Amino acid sequence: MNQQLELLLKATLDAWYSHVSRTDHLLSSLTDEQLQQEVAPGRNTGIYLLGHLTAVHDRLLPLLGFESQLYPHLDAFITSPDKAIKDIPPAADLRLHWKEVNDKLAKHFSGLTPDGWFQKHTAVSDEDFIKEPHRNRLSVLISRTHHLSYHLGQLIFLKK
Amino acid sequence: MNQQLELLLKATLDAWYSHVSRTDHLLSSLTDEQLQQEVAPGRNTGIYLLGHLTAVHDRLLPLLGFESQLYPHLDAFITSPDKAIKDIPPAADLRLHWKEVNDKLAKHFSGLTPDGWFQKHTAVSDEDFIKEPHRNRLSVLISRTHHLSYHLGQLIFLKK
To answer: Mean of the pLDDT values across residues A146-154?
Structure first.
C-alpha cells in the first residue's frame, strides 16, 4: 500500500482509539453520582451523554456493515432528549455497554483491510456510491470521532 | 494520485473546514455579552475559549511551516488559565483575529500539494522524522480539528 495512505489511515484510526481511551479514562474517574449530574445547568446529564455516545457507537455496527446493533433499546438516547427518557438504565449497565460496543467495533476494525475502509457504509446505495465515493466507512469514522470529541468536551465538566 | 488517498485527504480537510464553519456560525449567533459568560459555572468564559482557539490556530502558521504567527500576544490564552489573563482583548478584536487566522490558514492549505501535507511539521527534527513519518502536517491538522470540536461542544452552552 502507498505509504502516505497507510500513514493517514493510521492517523485517522489512532484519533478514534485515543478519543475512546480518553473517554474511558474520564468515565473511570467519575462516580455514578457524578454521572447523574447535568454537565452544565439545564444541559444533558452525564448519564444521558454516556447513553447517547454508546447508542451512536452501537449503531456503527450495522452502519459500517459489521453486524446488528447490540443494544437497540438505547436508541432512545438518540431519538429523545435527556429529560424525555423514562427508563434510564443504571450507570453500571451503561458503563458496561459502552465498553462492549467499543470493544466490538475494535474487533471489526482490526479485521478490516485498508480497501475495506473505503467501501461504502450501509446507508448509501450502490448507485449513489459510484457518484459519491466519499461516503465510505472512513468518513463515518471521522465524523463519529469528532462527535465523541465534542461531547467529551462537555463530559469533562463533571470533574470537580 | 491514488484515489483512496485523495478521498481520505479530502475528508480530513473537510472536517477541518466544517468545524471552523460551525464555530463561525455559532460565534455569529452569540452576542459579545454572551461571550463574556462562563460556558458552565466556574469554567472558561466564551471569550477565553475564543482567544484560546484563535491562538492555537495562529500557532499553526509557524508549526506547519507557513509563516510567523500573526498575534503572538494571544499566546497568553494558551499559557495562562482564564482568570489569570489581565488584558483580555475586546470581543470584536478576537472575532476579527479568529477569522483572519483561519482565512490565512485556508490560503496556505489551498496552496499545499498532497505531498506537502505529508511533510514534517516544524516541531520535529529531520532525524526524528525519518523514524517517525507520522509527525507530518496532517497529523497536526487532525489533532487541531478534534481540539476545535472539543471546545465547540463547550461554547455551544453559551446559547440560550
So the answer is: 98
Residues of B in contact with A157 (CB under 8 A): 40, 43, 154
- Cell numbers for B17: 473546514
Out of A24-38, A44-58, B75-89, pick the least confident. B75-89
Is A68 near chain B, with CB under 8 Å?
no
Instruction: With CB atoms and an 8 Å threshold, state whether B43 touches A150.
Output: no
B10 with A143: Cβ contact below 8 A = no
**Digit-coded pLDDT (tens) for B95-151:** 999 999 999 999 999 999 999 999 999 999 999 999 999 999 999 999 999 999 999
CB contact under 8 A, B5 and A8: yes
Q: How far is the alpha carbon of A104 from chain B, nearest alpha carbon, in Å?
A: 23
Dihedral angle of Cα A56, A59, A63, A64, to the nearest 10 degrees: 90
Residue B160 pLDDT: 84
Considering only alpha carbons, which residue of chain B is nearest residue A44?
A: B157
What is the rounded distance in angstroms from the CA atom of residue B118 to the CA atom of residue B147?
20
Q: Helical H runs in chain B?
A: 3-29, 32-36, 46-58, 60-63, 76-79, 91-110, 114-117, 126-131, 137-155
Cell output for B10:
479530502
Show which of residues 10-39 on chain B sit within 8 Å of chain A, judged by CB atoms: 10-12, 15, 19, 39
3-state helix, strand, coil in chain A (%, to 5): 70, 0, 30
Span A99-138, pLDDT tens digits: 999 999 999 999 999 999 999 999 999 999 999 999 999 9
Q: Classify A123 as helix, strand or coil.
A: coil
Q: What are phi and psi of B69, to 5 degrees?
A: -70, 150
- Closest-CA distance of chain B to residue A69, Å: 26
pTM metric for this prediction:
0.97
- Cell readout for B147 is 481540539
